[in-house]
Design a protein that fits this description.
The protein is α/β, with parallel strands linked by helices and about 550 residues long. Helix 2 crosses helix 3 and helix 8 packs parallel to helix 9. The chain has 22 helices and 19 strands. Helix 13 links the parallel strand 13 and strand 14. The chain folds into 3 domains: about 150 residues, 3-Layer(aba) Sandwich (Rossmann fold), CATH 3.40.50; about 210 residues, TIM Barrel (Alpha-Beta Barrel); about 60 residues, no CATH class. This is Cobalamin B12-binding domain protein. InterPro entries: BchE-like, Cobalamin-bd, Cobalamin-bd_sf, DUF4080, Elp3/MiaA/NifB-like_rSAM, rSAM, rSAM_horseshoe, rSAM_sf. It comes from Bacteroides coprosuis DSM 18011. Keywords: Iron, Iron-sulfur, Metal-binding, S-adenosyl-L-methionine.
C-alpha cells in the first residue's frame, strides 16, 4: 500500500514541519513519501500530480489559510479516484472532526499530534481494517474526543525532520520551522493553543544537534514555533547562548516572546552579546485594555512589557514585531485606537494589526453570542461586528491597516515618518494612518500596480495639505530604498541637458574628486545629483553602501567654489 502526505503551503518559502514529522515516524515501516504545494497553484494540476503518485492513502494537513483550497482539492481527487482513502489532520480539523467528516469527502480525521497514531492507522489500512479504534482518529459513526499528544522521548529517537537529505539543497530558499517545545501554558480564549495542556520540552542535546546542522547549512531563516519561547528561563538562556556562540552571518532566528517574562538580566545579556539583526522577536500584545485582557484570560502587565520592549529597543540588536488584535470583547473603536497608539509609541519596526478570527474549537467561538459577534462562517472566520464595535468601524480599522502596511511596516519611510510622528502626530499614530488612507483613497490611488515613486509622491502631497514639508527626508528615504541608482525620481525637475552640464562640472573638478576619493565614472554611473539651492548640490552615491540597512553616502558640492 502506498501512502502520500501533502499540504498546500501559504507561500513557496514556507515548509510543513508536520509532514516531515509524520514522514520520519513512518518511513521505515511503510511506503510513504511527502510532497508540498502552494495555495496559489492550480488545484486541478495539484490533484493530477497527486493522482500520478499512484497512492492508495493520502494525508492532507489543513490549516486556516488552506481550508477552501483543500476542500476543493479533495472533491477533485474523489472524482478522479473514488477509491482513494483520504485522511486529514492539522489545527483546522482537530477540534471539530464531525463537521469535516459530514461535509467533506474524507475518510478519517486525526486530532492532535499524529506522528504515531498515523502509523497505527496505516497498519490497520494495510490489513484491510477500515473501522479502527485508535484514540484521536475519527470517521463517520466513530468520533474520538481525544486530542493526541506525541511522546517527545519517542520523537527524538526518529530520524530528524530537520536533516532530511531531500531538503538539503532547498534550505537556502525556504523558511526552516523548528520547535524546541510543544504546548502553551496560557488560556487566551481566541487561540487554539489555549486548548493544549501543559508544555513539553525537547532535550537540549537534541535541539543543539539540529541547530548545529542548520547553522552549518545554507539556511537563512529559522523560525521557532514555540508558542511562548521564553517561558522557561533556563531553556531560553541555553538556546540563546548556543545560537550566539555558534553565530553565522546571513542567518536570522525568529521567536515568539512573552515580553512580560523578560528580566533586566536577560535583556542586558542579549543587548551585550547578540550580533545585530540576528534575532527577531514577535511579541503579541493584542490589547492594552485591561477589561478586555481579563475577559479573554490573557494576563499582561503592560507597564512591565513596555519597559522591557524599550530596553530591547535601546539595545538596537533585535528587530521587534508587535501584534494587535482588533475586535476583542469590550474593546470599542475608540478604545482600540488607544491600544494601537499605546503599542505604536513603543517604536517597533513593525506593528501587525490583525482582526479577531473565530477559530474552530476556541472558547470565544463557543461564546460568540455572549458578545454579539457576527463572523464570517467561511475561513478565516473573521468577525464582522460585535456589541462593542460596528461593521463600519471594523472597515475603518482595515483602512488604517492598509496605510500602516504600505507606509510603516514596509520599512520604506523610516526617517520621514519618525520625524512626522515626533513633531506633528505625537500619540496620534492611528489618526495619521486613518487620515493618510482617506487622502489617497479620495485620490483613487490604486491598491495594486503602483510604483515606489507613487507612494512617495502621495505621502508628500498628503503632508503638504497638513502644512508639513519634509522633502529632504523623503528624498533620502526614497534613494535608500534602492541598491542601484534609480531611473526615476518623483520630483525631478532638471532637464537632461542641465544634468549633463552639472555632471561635467563635477567630474572636471579634480580637487573635489581627490578629496572624496571619487572617479568620474562613479559620478556618471553611480550618483544622483539634486539641487539644494543656487550654490549647493547634493550627490547620493550608490556604489559604496555597507549593506541595505545603512544609508547611501551623501556629499555636498558647492558650485563656483
Amino acid at each position: 500500500m502506498k501512502f502520500v502526505l501533502s499540504t498546500l503551503n501559504a507561500k513557496y518559502i514556507h515548509t510543513s514541519l508536520a509532514l516531515r514529522w509524520l514522514y520520519v515516524a513512518n518511513k521505515d515501516k511503510f511506503n510513504v513519501s511527502y510532497i508540498e504545494f502552494v495555495i496559489k497553484e492550480n488545484i486541478n494540476s495539484v490533484a493530477q500530480q497527486l493522482i500520478e503518485t499512484d497512492c492508495d492513502v493520502l494525508g492532507l494537513s489543513v490549516s486556516i489559510w488552506n481550508v477552501r483550497q483543500t476542500q476543493t482539492l479533495i472533491q477533485l481527487l474523489k472524482e478522479k479516484k473514488p477509491e482513494l482513502i483520504i485522511f486529514v489532520g492539522g489545527p483546522e480539523v482537530t477540534y471539530e472532526p464531525e463537521f469535516f467528516l459530514e461535509n467533506w469527502e474524507i475518510d478519517y480525521v486525526i486530532s492532535g499530534e499524529g506522528e504515531f497514531v498515523s502509523g497505527q492507522l496505516f497498519e490497520a489500512l494495510q490489513q484491510g481494517i477500515r473501522e479502527v479504534d485508535i484514540p484521536g482518529v475519527s470517521y463517520i459513526g466513530h468520533i474520538s474526543r481525544t486530542i493526541v499528544q506525541a511522546d517527545i522521548e519517542k520523537l527524538i529517537l526518529l530520524d530528524s525532520p530537520y536533516q532530511l537529505e531531500e531538503d538539503k539543497e532547498a534550505l537556502i530558499n525556504r523558511v526552516v520551522y523548528l520547535e524546541t517545545s510543544r504546548g502553551c501554558p496560557y488560556q487566551c480564549q481566541y487561540c487554539l493553543s489555549s486548548l493544549e495542556k501543559g508544555v513539553r520540552y525537547f532535550p537540549k542535546e537534541y535541539i543543539y544537534d539540529n541547530l548545529s546542522y542548520l547553522i552549518q547549512s545554507d539556511a537563512k531563516l529559522i523560525k521557532f514555533l514555540d508558542r511562548t519561547f521564553n517561558l522557561n528561563k533556563t531553556h531560553t538562556y541555553n538556546v540563546f547562548n548556543f545560537l550566539i556562540e555558534n553565530y553565522r552571518p546571513n542567518l536570522s532566528c525568529q521567536f515568539e516572546i512573552y515580553a512580560d517574562l523578560l528580566d533586566d538580566e536577560k535583556i542586558a545579556f542579549l543587548n551585550n552579546n547578540l550580533p545585530k539583526d540576528y534575532f527577531r522577536f514577535e511579541i503579541g500584545i493584542q490589547s492594552t485594555y485591561e477589561p478586555t485582557n481579563l475577559e479573554v484570560k490573557r494576563r499582561q502587565d503592560f507597564d512591565l512589557l513596555s519597559k522591557n520592549i524599550k530596553l530591547l529597543m535601546e539595545g538596537g540588536k533585535i528587530d521587534l514585531h508587535l501584534d494587535l488584535i482588533a475586535g476583542l470583547p469590550f474593546e470599542t473603536y475608540e478604545r482600540f485606537k488607544k491600544s494601537f497608539n499605546d503599542v505604536f509609541a513603543l517604536g517597533a519596526k513593525e506593528v501587525q494589526l490583525g482582526f479577531l478570527k473565530m477559530l474552530r474549537g476556541t472558547n470565544l467561538r463557543r461564546n460568540a453570542a455572549k458578545y454579539g459577534y457576527k463572523y464570517d462562517e467561511l475561513p478565516p472566520y473573521e468577525i464582522e461586528y460585535s456589541d462593542s464595535i460596528s461593521a463600519e468601524e471594523i472597515t475603518l480599522i482595515h483602512n488604517a491597516e492598509e496605510a500602516l502596511d504600505r507606509y510603516w511596516n514596509s520599512g520604506r519611510f523610516d526617517r520621514s515618518l519618525t520625524f512626522v510622528f515626533e513633531n506633528f502626530y505625537p500619540n496620534r499614530y492611528f489618526e495619521f494612518f486613518e487620515e493618510l488612507y482617506n487622502f489617497y483613497s479620495a485620490k483613487n490611488f490604486p491598491r495594486f500596480g503602483y510604483q515606489l515613486e507613487d507612494l512617495f509622491a502621495v505621502l508628500q502631497e498628503f503632508l503638504t495639505t497638513k502644512g508639513i514639508d519634509i522633502f529632504p527626508l523623503l528624498r533620502d528615504d526614497y534613494y535608500d530604498n534602492y541598491t542601484l541608482r534609480p531611473h526615476g525620481f518623483w520630483q525631478d525637475k532638471m532637464s537632461k541637458k542641465e544634468k549633463k552640464q552639472l555632471v561635467q562640472k563635477i567630474i572636471h573638478d579634480e580637487s573635489f574628486l581627490t578629496q572624496n576619493k571619487l572617479t568620474a565614472q562613479q559620478i556618471e554611473k553611480y550618483s544622483t545629483i539634486d539641487v539644494i539651492d543656487e550654490q549647493t548640490l547634493l550627490l547620493t552615491l550608490f556604489h559604496v553602501r555597507e549593506n541595505k540597512k545603512t544609508p547611501h553616502p551623501r556629499i555636498k558640492y558647492i558650485l563656483n567654489s
